[in-house]
User: What shape does this take?
Amino acid sequence: MIVLNSPVKPNLKKLNKLLEQVNENSWYTNFGPLHSELTAKLEDYLGVKNLLLTNNGTSALQVAAKAIGSRNLLATPFSFVATVSAFKWQHDELGFADIDKKSLNLSPEAIRLAYLKGCKADTVVATHVYGNPCDVKSIGELSEENNFQIIYDAAHAFGIKLGEDSVLNYGDASTLSFHATKIFHTVEGGAIVFKNSDNFDRAKELINFGIRQGGRVVDVGINAKLNEYQAAVGLVNLEEIDNILNHRSELFHQYCEGLKGVVEIPQWHPQANTNGAYMPILLENGRQMKTVANSLKANNIQSRNYFEPSLDQIFVDSHNYGTKNSIAASERILCLPMHAYLTSYEVSSVIEKVKCLV
Ligand SMILES: *Cc1c(COP(=O)(O)O)cnc(C)c1O
Assistant: This one.
C-alpha cells in the first residue's frame, strides 16, 4: 500500500532525554524552558520574529484574529475547513471571494471586486494552498487601498521563502499548524507570526486566559498554550527538518517532471521554493478525478479529493462574492501520496499509474 500521508515519528531516545529534563524541572507548561528553546530555534530557522507557539493551528487563527482586532473577514473558499470554521466559532462575520484558476490561491482581482461590491471586511484571510505562496504583493497593495488587515493561513507553508524572505513575514499575522500530519509537528500544536510586536504581546496574554505578567486579567482570554512535552517533540523533530524538506521537495519535483503534459499542476509562485507539503493534480473534470482515484485505490495507492467541498457550500449563510473557480477546482483536484517516508521508487510507480489512467 502506498499511503497518502505518514506522520514523522520522533526519535524516542532523544525525546526521552528531553522528557526526563521536564520531569527534573517539574515545569510542564506555561511558557517553560523547552517552550522558550523551541520558539528561539523556530524563529531562527524560519527567519521570523514575534513567533508565538499555540496548542494547535485552529486556535492560532482564532487568536490571531482577536489580537489584531478582526471582526469581519473575507476568506478564501478553497482551504481546509478550519480556515473558516475557526472564525465562525467565535461569531465573526464572514464572506468569500474566489480563487485564481491557476494557483488556486485567493485572487487579488476577486478581492478588489468584492470591495467594489460593498464588502466591509476589516480583514482578508488567505491560505498559501499546498504551500504555494499567495500573490502577497498584490494583496498587500489592495490592503492599503481598501484598509484591511491580512491573516495568512500558512499551515502548509513551513520553510517556504519568497526570494530570501520567509513567506511568514507577509501580512499582519501568519499562522502555522504543527499537527502530526504536517511537515513539521509537535503532535498537536501551531504558531502565529506577527508583523507587529504589540499584537504579539496581546496574543501572548490572550492564550493564557488574558492574564498579564504580574497576574492581572486584562482581556477576555482562552487557554491555547503549547506545553513542554509538545515542545520536546518539536525540538526533536526540528533536528530532522532539513532532511525532510529536501526529500519532500525532491519528490515534488520528480512528480512535476513525470506528470508534465499529463495532468495540470497548480501554478507555483515564481519566486518561491517548494516544500513538498502536498502533491496536488487537477484532472479534466470531476468524473475523471473519480476514475483516477478509484483506479489508484484498486492498485493500493491512496489519494484524496482535497479540498472539497468549496467552503461556501458548507457555510452557506456567509456573504458570497462569487466562488466559481473554487467550486470547479474542488471537483477536479486530487492529492497524490506525499510524506517523509515515501520513496522515489514509489513516486515513479504512482506517476506510471496516473499516466495510464488519463
Ligand atoms: C491543518 C490545517 C489547519 C488546522 O490546524 P490544526 O493544527 O489541525 O488545528 C488550518 N488550516 C489549514 C490550511 C490546515 O491545513
In short: The chain has a mean pLDDT of 98. The radius of gyration is 20 Å. Residues 21 and 34 are 9 Å apart (CA to CA).
